[in-house]
Amino acid sequence: EAKHSGRNTYAFFSQHLDAQVHEEQRLQQRLQQALGNDGLELHYQPLVDVASNRVIGVEALARWTDSELGPVAPTRFITSAEATGLILPLGEWVISEACEQLAQWSRAGLELRVAINVSAMQFRQHDLVQRLGAILEATGAPPERLEIEVTETVAMADVALTRDQLRGLKALGIRVSLDDFGTGYSSLAYLKSLPIDKLKIDRSFIVDIDQEPESEMILRAIVHLGHSLGLTLVAEGVETTAQRDFLRMIGCDLYQGWVHSSAMAGSAVRDHLHVARA
Length: 278
Ligand code: C2E
Ligand code: MG
Ligand code: MG
Ligand code: MG
Fold this sequence. Notes:
By secondary structure, the protein is an alpha/beta fold. It is built from 11 helices and 10 strands. It has helices at 2-36, 74-84, 87-107, 120-123, 128-139, 152-157, 159-172, 188-193, 213-228, 241-249, 266-277; strands at residues 40-49, 55-66, 70-72, 113-117, 146-151, 175-181, 198-201, 232-235, 254-255, 264-265. It has an 8-stranded mixed beta barrel, surrounded by 5 helices. Helix 3 (87-107) packs parallel to helix 5 (128-139) and helix 5 (128-139) runs parallel beside helix 7 (159-172). The longest helix is centred in the N-terminal third of the chain and has 35 residues, at 2-36. It is globular. One magnesium ion binds at residues 59, 117, 149, 179.
């Protein structure tokens, strides 16, 4: 009896694993197809000045709704693309698409910054800076309005490489943000030695500031530290006006979050700016 149920349990888990592997393969196939068939989109989330509540830029976020799988979360398909190497062509598409949009806004007189997320494998490409330079030239996007976001974890994994890449990006005139700050481990000495412009404080530090006094203290300390290193501080995932008020009180520079707006299609950004400024 016991033996029998054990075998059933094994069969259950084995089938479950098979199903997962199958699902992952299907996702990878569909993603590859989407990339080749113009099936991915970039949406843009406003980056807002805390003090004036004015939109100063946007972050480009990849979106994918597959005809068979439905909408797939970015963390899901980005992770999958990292595992297969598809992230390199996908990342290149993101850069081109975002730069084209930036060039278009810039020609139309919209002074918006555009931030792009760069994944681990992409950041380790030895020719990333050259590729970016070529895309900037081809699209006519103004480099001083382009920002590259790299996560703290990726940046700190190989500080020597990070320093080289960031120097190359700076030489092109591009700014650099450390994304998901606080979730990894940054040595302060390294933080000081890297040519970073912004710290994007991870959402997990914002989410419970109204409830947890410790979170308020940590957030204050991060803002203070960042400012003393000459960095611009950005809070991610701001969902309530109470959170925004707190950020204003402690002097955080910029925020992103649903309390202002989620990400939208590029074509909706101009109207959003008019409404937000009215
Ligand atoms: P991220 O770069 O830290 O982006 C912020 C994430 O927080 C986005 O999730 C955004 O939609 C979400 N968010 C913004 N405001 C709020 C809020 O008020 N509340 C909550 N709960 N969430 C908020 P999204 O779009 O699902 O992207 C998740 C992650 O996937 C990104 O985190 C980034 O690491 C990655 N990703 C997205 N697009 C790209 C891309 O084009 N290339 C690369 N390499 N990674 C990307
Ligand atoms: Mg980001
Ligand atoms: Mg982030
Ligand atoms: Mg994040």
